[in-house]
From TrEMBL:
It comes from the Bacteria. This is Sigma54 specific transcriptional regulator, Fis family. GO terms for molecular function: ATP binding; phosphorelay response regulator activity; sequence-specific DNA binding. Pfam families: AAA_lid_14, HTH_8, PAS, PrpR_N, Sigma54_activat. It comes from uncultured Sporomusa sp. NCBIfam families: sensory_box.
């Protein structure tokens, strides 16, 4: 159905309107009907979805009285009256004017301008339904007193009254009036469409939003209550609209906003159905409070949403992918260590894992997380030695907008926040600088975190697992690590034995890695000869399982060149053992070792690393940067090895 309909009360107007619409306004449909016929037509097209009706005179008034639709009246303009009276210029004719105020005023002004004698015989009030019988009597009386030559009026008046005069002229609307009326109708239709669109958007938002929304006017009466609010307050919107909010929300503080004019955000409120979080803001028009609106969130829904966020973090990689089943062990002590870690997983206490590099500290941390009650939450790993202190601080604790130059304008949550509901794994905790240790202490003790640039603490629910390859207690006694932080971490301890002490694991792990990489690279499967066993267990494996894995991968990739796995393995071990270090054999008894010309017995790994650092530094002429680069370590680590 057309949005706009034109109902003309007489044929000439209908014809002119059709010509104009056919040329300029094809979306406007023209009908013809006077008074009741026009009303019947309007009722029918309104039922079909018409938005705006255009008509004239009494027909327009009748439609407006009986239909709840905007009606645009084709106004009688000065041009229309001028067109009707122009041929009377210079003629000794008296005109009588009958009609509504606008017609009478217009005729008076035009007749004076044209110097035509006019009489106001009958003026009708456009806001009231005329008493036509009384109007007929008044007109008849005036005509007897003052006869006229020509009677001028609009369609309604002329059609309703018995006019006994020589000539009757109908004021006909011209094209200008029709154009003006249609443009006004189109403007109203556009506004209606926009209002309907906005109203439907608001209705959809209020209907589907999870938050409860309640609005009141300046008297405290409810004007809006969405379905979520109905559920929260066990109310019915149809019954609540127009009534005081205190009848439906007994402890509502929303009326207070009408007085204070100030917003209150994120306030906890008790309801019969439980705790909710509410925010209230005033509605101001031209600086005056005309109402208020409040949103309500059920704490249970907030918690569910938070859980979904945690699942999203899983999709971003903040999750554990390894479990205890991925840790292969044949060695008795290693099995005992795994059993201890399994028991720790059932608790929520802080865990400190101590082991040399390459022993699988994160593997244990992920496994503990996977077997804990937090397994569905995020697993966030941080290497404390991989980042400079300033960057590590912002990564750990996050920052608010504008906290420092280069910060994101919207701020950023830290890894501690992202670990909420799950596990925070702090790898190489022993390398964290003292200033950061103080901030971390608050996280461990109070389970609270403050972003950089912020002034308030945020509670976090996390389990902390820390790992280190250095003797943390010794560092604490030396003043290189906070003693209070050490005791916070040293609750549940796990010491993963190095590979050289797990003799039973070396040969099976070697064969496992050989099989793994042969399948990965599509190479021939390799079986180590029995004599390889002694060679493997005599090498110290300072890189532990990581080094063993890399060695077996290298063996698989180069095996087909010679076909002799034992020769290749011995060459690899010889290359790795660049200083001809002889290490403990299978019986764990130390064998003599030569480190850069220095004979030692019972050489410890720490002593070997220390001596290697000294010899490398000497070879580099005392240049620590060059020595660190040659060893593949940082200057900080080199300084530590030299102590």
């Amino acid at each position: 159905m057309n949005r706009i309909a034109f109902i003309a009360p007489y044929t000439k107007l209908a014809t002119l309107a059709r010509e104009i619409c056919a040329e300029t306004y094809p979306d406007v449909k023209v009908f013809e009907g006077l008074l009741d016929e026009g009303l019947d037509c309007a009722q029918q097209i309104a039922a079909e979805g018409c938005q705006v009706i255009i008509s004239r005179g009494g027909t327009a008034s009748l439609i407006q009285e009986n239909l709840n639709l905007p009606v645009v009246e084709v106004k009688v303009t000065g041009y229309d009256i001028l067109h009707t009276l122009s041929d009377l210029i210079g003629k000794n004719k008296t005109i009588g004017v009958i009609g509504y105020h606008n017609v009478v005023r217009g005729c008076r002004a035009i007749s004076q301008m044209l110097q035509i004698k006019s009489l106001e015989l009958l003026t009708l009030n456009s806001t009231e339904s005329p008493d036509w019988q009384a109007a007929q009597a008044r007109l008849h009386k005036k005509l007897l007193q003052t006869p006229v030559d020509i009677l001028v009026g609009d369609t309604l008046v002329i059609s309703k009254l018995n006019l006994n005069v020589p000539e009757v002229r109908l004021i006909v609307s011209g094209a200008e009036s029709i154009y003006e009326a249609i443009e006004e109708a189109r403007r109203i239709a556009r506004v209606q469409t926009e209002e309907k669109k906005s109203s439907e958007q608001l209705r959809t938002i209020l209907h589907f939003i999870h938050d409860g929304v309640v609005a009141i006017d300046d008297s405290g009466n409810i004007t809006v209550m969405n379905p979520a609010a109905e559920t929260i307050f066990n109310s019915n919107a149809a019954q609540a609209i127009g009534k005081s909010i205190t009848q439906f929300i007994t402890n509502s503080k929303l009326p207070d906003i009408l007085i204070s004019g100030k917003a209150e955000l994120d306030q906890l409120q008790s309801t019969p159905s439980g705790m909710i979080v509410t925010s209230k803001i005033p509605i101001k028009v031209n600086g005056k409070v005309e109402g208020a609106v409040a949103t309500f969130q059920e704490t249970g829904r907030i918690q569910k949403t938070e859980q979904k966020i945690r699942l999203t973090l899983h999709a971003k990689g903040l999750f554990a992918k390894y479990s205890f089943s991925d840790i292969m062990a044949w060695d008795y002590e290693m099995k005992r260590t795994i059993d201890k870690a399994r028991r720790y997983a059932l608790t929520d206490g802080t865990v400190l894992i101590q082991a040399e590099s390459g022993c699988g500290k994160e593997l244990f941390a992920q496994s503990i997380h996977q077997e804990s009650s937090r397994s569905s939450g995020p697993f966030v790993a941080v290497n404390c030695s991989a980042l400079p202190p300033q960057l590590l601080e912002s990564e750990l604790f996050g920052y608010v907008a504008g906290a420092f130059t280069g910060a994101r304008k919207e701020g950023k949550p830290g890894l501690v926040e992202l670990a909420h509901g799950g596990t925070l794994f702090l790898d190489e905790i022993g390398d964290m600088e003292l200033g950061l240790q103080a901030r971390l202490l608050r996280v461990l003790g109070e389970r609270q975190v403050m972003r950089l640039g912020s002034d308030h603490w945020m509670p976090v629910d996390i389990r902390v697992i820390a790992a280190t390859h250095v003797p943390l207690k010794q560092k604490a006694f030396e003043g290189l690590f906070r003693m209070d932080l050490f005791y916070r971490l040293n609750v549940l301890t796990i010491a993963i034995p190095p590979l050289r002490q797990r003799v039973a694991d070396i040969y099976p792990l070697s064969n496992y890695f050989l099989s793994l990489f042969a399948e990965k690279y599509g190479r021939t499967a390799i079986e180590l000869p029995p004599e390889a066993h002694d060679a493997l267990i005599r090498y110290p494996w300072p890189g532990n399982v990581r080094e063993l894995r890399n060695t077996m991968e290298r063996l698989v990739l180069t095996y087909e060149e010679t076909g002799n796995s034992m020769d290749i393995l011995l060459d690899f071990l010889k290359e790795l053992d660049t200083d001809s270090v002889r290490l403990p054999a299978a019986n764990d008894l130390p064998a003599p070792a030569v480190i850069a010309g220095h004979s030692q017995s019972a050489v410890s790994m720490k002593a070997m690393k220390h001596q290697l650092a000294i010899d490398t530094l000497k070879a580099c002429g005392g240049n620590k940067s060059k020595a660190a680069k040659q060893l593949g370590i940082t200057r900080y680590t080199l300084d530590r090895l030299l102590k």
